Amino acid sequence: MKNIKNISIAVALLIFNSFFAQVAIGKEVVDGNSTVLDFNNVSGNTKGVILPATSGLPTGTLVNGTFVFDLTDNKVKVYENDVWKPLSDAGSSSAVVVNNSAELGKGVIIGASSSTADGVLVLESQDKAMMLPKIATPHLNVKNPYPGMICYDTTSKTLAIFDGSVWNYWK
């Protein structure tokens, strides 16, 4: 009888979590109800999100808010209103390790059961956002940043993007 109760609780938790689809990385609990992807933002954090490094710009079904590190000109770019916009100056891709493996599947979707977007990680939500990893002064505290790394600088209160050479900051 106890096993049935435990199995029922586990199934209920799985069903409940699939409806809200919030993910915490590096910690046990997502902060708040408005976050679909949340990172462990403890004091002293030096880890950010690494964007996919692409040889040229992706084509096909693109959606606003798609980010890449473009190896053709070494710039971090975002897709917005049918145009790729640079978010960094030309950096360096010398540290990028190219993955020549064949891609399998459509990637990972968080927040919905499917998506029309084609990406390695797709966040789908009508009422939740992604909270970037928070790092105080990443240009001083991240010792070996990887090209395409993004985070939120808690000191300057800006979006910080590493282009392989320098950090670029956006308000």
Query: Count the strands?
Result: 14
Which ranges are low-confidence, i.e. pLDDT below 50, for 5 or more consecutive residues?
Answer: 10-19
Q: Mean pLDDT across all residues, rounded?
A: 81
What portion of residues is helical?
A: 10-25%
Rough outline? globular
- Our estimate of the beta-strand percent is 25-35%
* Main sheet record: 5 strands, mixed
Give the SSE order as H and E letters: HEEEEEEEEEEEHEEE
Task: Please identify the structural class as seen in this structure.
Answer: alpha/beta
Distance between the termini: 57 Å
Helix count, per DSSP? 2
Spatial extent as radius of gyration? 18 Å
Number of domains: 1
What do you see in this structure?
Keywords: Signal. Residues 1-23 form the signal peptide. With 171 residues, this protein is α/β, with parallel strands linked by helices. It has one domain (22-170). The chain is 13% helix and 30% strand. The chain has two helices and 14 strands, in the order H-E-E-E-E-E-E-E-E-E-E-E-H-E-E-E. The protein has helices at 2-20, 138-141, and strands spanning 23-25, 35-39, 49-50, 53-54, 66-70, 75-80, 83-86, 108-110, 121-123, 129-130, 134-135, 149-153, 158-162, 167-170. The strands form four sheets. Strands 3, 11, 12, 13 and 14 form a five-stranded mixed beta sheet that branches. The chain has a four-stranded mixed beta sheet with strand order 4-5-6-7, with no helix packed on it. Strands 1-2-10 form a three-stranded parallel beta sheet, with no helix packed on it. Strand 11, helix 2 (138-141) and strand 12 form a beta-alpha-beta unit. The longest helix has 19 residues, at 2-20. The radius of gyration is 18 Å and the shape is globular. It starts with a helix and ends with a strand. Residues 10-19 have low confidence and may be disordered.
